[in-house]
Amino acid sequence: MNLSFKGYLLLNGFFLIFISFNNVFNFNLIDFTLVMSIFFYSIKWNKNEWLVPLFLFAWGIFQDILLGMNLGYSGSIFLFFYVLSQITSINGLFEQQKIKFIIFIIALLILFIFKNLFIYFSYQLNYLSVGELSAFLIMVLLYPPLNLMIIYSQKKYEENR
Q1: Torsion of CA 7, 35, 114, 12, to 10 degrees
Q2: Number of domain units in the chain
Q3: Which of 3, 8, 45, 155 has a CA-to-CA distance to 51 between 20 and 30 Å?
Q4: What is the pTM of this model?
Q5: 113 to each of 117, 118, 120, 123, 154, how far by Cα in Å?
Q6: CB 73 within 8 A of CB 64
Q7: How far apart are CA 128 and CA 120, in angstroms?
Q8: Residue 107, CB half-sphere, CA atoms under 13 Å: how many?
Q9: DSSP assignment, residue 161?
């Protein structure tokens, strides 16, 4: 996906809208940070887009400030899924949707494990929340329809170019 100046404005507008959704609609079961991560993972980014990771991290810091989270938490998640998207794209796995879905599930599992290990080692708490686990499972269920929508819109965009 090559971005022009208009594309960068639209991308930043998209970030602002979803971060606002996360700030306004703070559900326990739907984590808008992970919903945005689905978008970052599903989009086939161009290798030459060097501003996108900077924007992702900056918007993540902005979201962390708005939500009162540790600085760098959201930006790290955004960058993790962006880099994962780049790796699948470089290795030719981007078009193979079943393998891409399995990689997404493994990435969510790794994120869940690291989050719980961080809580355990930082606060000495055995924190295994059913709500947190169900939020990750809902993201697994939301991935296929959102991925299909993004792939469809990207193909339409490429046809129009």
Answers
A1: 20
A2: 1
A3: 155
A4: 0.85
A5: 6, 9, 10, 15, 32
A6: yes
A7: 10
A8: 26
A9: -
Question: What is the pLDDT, as a whole number, of residue 2?
Answer: 59
As a whole number of angstroms, the distance between CA 161 and CA 5 comes to 16
Residue 83 belongs to what domain range? 5-160
Distance CA 126, CA 145 (A): 34
At which residue do the structure tokens 């992702």 appear? Answer: 56
- Which residue bears the tokens 């989270």? 69
Instruction: Give the burial class of 68: count Cβ atoms within 10 A of its Cβ; 0-12 exposed, 13-18 middle, 19 or more buried.
Output: exposed
Interatomic CA distance for residues 59 and 56, integer angstroms: 5
Q: Encode 29-86 in three state secondary structure.
A: CCCHHHHHHHHHHHCCCCCCCCHHHHHHHHHHHHHHHHHCCCCCHHHHHHHHHHHHHH
For 132, the token pair is 């947190």
Tokens encoding 79: 């960058």
Q: Please tell me the total number of residues recorded for the chain in this structure.
A: 161
Q: What is the pLDDT of residue 110?
A: 93
Q: Which of the residues in the chain have pLDDT under 50?
A: none
